[in-house]
Specification:
It is a single chain. The protein is of the alpha+beta class and 573 residues long. It is 16% helix and 35% strand. Strands 3, 4, 5, 6, 7, 8, 9 and 10 form an 8-stranded mixed beta sheet that branches. Strands 11-12-13-14 form a 4-stranded antiparallel beta sheet, with no helix packed on it. Strands 15-16-17-18 form a 4-stranded antiparallel beta sheet. Helix 1 packs across helix 2. It starts with a helix and ends in a 12-residue tail after the last strand.
Length: 573
């Protein structure tokens, strides 16, 4: 077995993720057959060459609006079929116009017009900011053609982003099935290799107005001394630095901002009548640095029912004294709150009129920043359910409630109503392990029904959002996972038969992308429809959110992406 084959025998159990690195997800030592290893390696090598050289030539030609340069990469027998303009259907909202179509029967066009067609896709662009061509799947015919040539079958995603003459964002995305004929890498670099191009989808979007602008400087926030990977040495950078929570702590009608950094730095920023923010951290009695065990937990909730929001910063609870000062109640929480918390979510789970909270934890003792494996239920720590004793103190009720969540690495938790009994239920997002859906029985105990309702999710979840997207009165669950084009390409050439039971499903989950779940008509399980909704392929996703950004009465999705950015000029995501 050659080195390349041995290498792919290992990487077939890995998934390529954003940032160009490999991340180990599956523990079993499984070696694929030598033929399959070699084939996958050759397919991935061809993908790299095609994206770099052929894709680079096409995207460069589109940027330059050079149709002739595209024509030079087409074989003499080239045939083209594209999405017919008349098939496009328009959807309009308050801020966006979208024309889109999906077809199994594209319209043939003369080969000599193909270059003009591709460059016409950016006709509405005044400025072209980026053009990309990515291979979503790849295969090849085993039969050799003349002169040692092979025919390769690709599914490609061609996309571009830019702005109109009015400086408003515009973009397009198109998928196509492509065949290419070549024998060597050198053929891809300079010779005509594209044999056919058959477009199957086209989406064009343009904004009629911008939703947001950068107001950091205008709000007086540029002077905050927050950890910044762009300014830190590489060895001191981190994927997770700062959490924020918004609330009107002084009840003046303007939302204020609390920040908590992983290095212990804290800020309480008062909103001055909607004009700017003022740092009042020390002035209101909050220590600017956490010297107990720094973490990022920050949460507002009115624990004592006095009408003003209190503040949890790590393991410290600060009581709000009428919006003027805060009193540190660490003695009240020291027996229930550990220092190593990942996040906290709040609800009155027992419906006694007092807000309780659930503490999520990730790394177990000695496991800080260690790499986990899919289906890892051993390297984390048990979560904690904390009952509010009518504002007089707190009590751990985890064991009685049955929501410890094992030794999984929990990332986030969300309370919501999964059924119609009015008792708050709990969805727990776990990294490296399946997620949990705890149904509140109403007697202080919970039942995990994630598996039987199909929301357990094999993916590596790093956040979720819950809300009623379709306004039918029932909540949808949107989970942030990892999406890998390379992982999906490799998975197409392996199967469950290549691995021990359960491993293949775990590998698929490792690059599944974001998942969107809606309750079935009979209310017994959830249906996953992220790809149909167009919200699957986000990248390395963290902390999605549901918000009605354009005030049209429908919840929109905001999905963050990226692992770690170390350069202002090369953001990750």
């Amino acid at each position: 077995m050659n080195a390349s084959a041995r290498y792919i025998g290992i990487v077939s159990l890995l998934v390529l993720i954003g940032g160009g690195g490999w991340w180990l997800f599956s523990a079993p030592a499984v070696i694929l057959s030598e033929d399959k290893q070699v084939r996958i390696w050759e397919l991935e090598h061809a993908t790299f060459e095609l994206e770099t050289n052929l894709g680079g030539a096409i995207t460069s030609a589109i940027k330059k609006r050079d149709a002739a340069a595209i024509q030079k990469r087409l074989r003499e027998d080239f045939k083209a079929a594209v999405v017919n303009e008349s098939a496009l259907k328009r959807r309009e909202s308050r801020i966006c116009t979208e024309d889109s179509a999906i077809t199994e029967a594209p319209t043939e066009i003369p080969a000599q017009q193909f270059g003009e067609y591709l460059t016409s896709l950016v006709n509405s662009f005044d400025k072209i900011e980026s053009v990309g061509l990515r291979i979503l799947s790849i295969d090849r015919d085993d039969q050799l053609l003349n002169d040692g040539m092979r025919r390769w079958t690709l599914k490609v995603l061609l996309s571009a982003r830019g702005s109109t003459a009015d400086k408003l964002p515009v973009e397009f995305e198109s998928t196509a099935f492509v065949t290419a004929v070549f024998a060597r890498d050198e053929d891809i670099m300079s010779t005509p290799v594209i044999e056919t191009w058959s477009s199957r989808s086209l989406v064009r979007r343009s904004l009629t107005q911008r939703l947001f602008r950068d107001g950091t400087a205008g709000w007086g926030l540029t002077g905050l001394k927050l950890p910044d990977n762009w300014a830190l040495p590489k060895e001191k950078s981190s994927t997770l630095w700062t959490s924020a929570a918004v609330e009107d702590f002084d009840l003046d009608g303007f939302l204020d901002l609390a920040l908590h950094c992983a290095n212990g730095k804290r800020y309480l920023l008062r909103n001055n009548n909607g004009e700017d923010f003022e740092d009042v951290t020390q002035a209101v009695g909050i220590e600017p640095t956490d010297n107990i065990q720094p973490n990022m937990v920050v949460q507002w909730f009115d624990y004592d029912n006095d009408g003003d929001p209190d503040l949890l910063l790590g393991p410290m609870l600060y009581r709000n004294e009428g919006g003027k000062r805060f009193t540190n109640l660490r003695e009240m929480t020291k027996d229930v709150l550990p220092g190593d918390m990942m996040s906290v979510c709040v609800a009155d789970y027992d419906q006694d009129g007092w807000l309780d909270f659930y503490v999520l934890r990730e790394d177990g003792p000695g496991q800080i920043d260690s790499v986990g494996f899919l289906n890892d239920e051993e390297s984390g720590q048990e979560n904690i359910l904390v009952k509010n004793r009518e504002g007089r103190g707190f009590l751990k009720t985890t064991e009685i409630a049955g929501v410890a969540n094992g030794l999984r690495r929990s990332f986030a938790g969300l309370w919501f109503h999964a059924n119609d009994d009015n008792h708050p239920d709990l969805y727990v997002v776990n990294d490296f392990a399946s997620n949990s859906l705890y149904i509140n029985r109403g007697d202080g105990t919970f039942e995990d029904i994630a598996e039987k309702t199909l929301v357990a999710n094999f993916a590596n979840s790093m956040g979720a959002a819950i809300g009623d997207i379709d306004n039918d009165g029932r909540s949808e669950i949107y989970v942030g996972n990892m999406f890998s084009k390379m992982g999906r390409r490799i998975i197409e050439h392996v199967s469950a038969a290549d691995y021990p039971p359960g491993v293949y499903e775990q590998i698929r989950g490792a690059c599944a992308g974001n998942q969107l779940y809606r309750l079935s008509a009979d209310g017994t399980k959830y249906e996953e429809y992220s790809e149909k909704a167009g919200v699957n392929a986000v990248g390395w996703a963290y902390a999605p959110a549901m918000v009605d950004f354009d005030s049209d009465g429908r919840l929109d999705l905001y999905a963050t992406a990226g692992f770690i950015s170390r350069s202002r000029t090369r953001p990750d995501g």
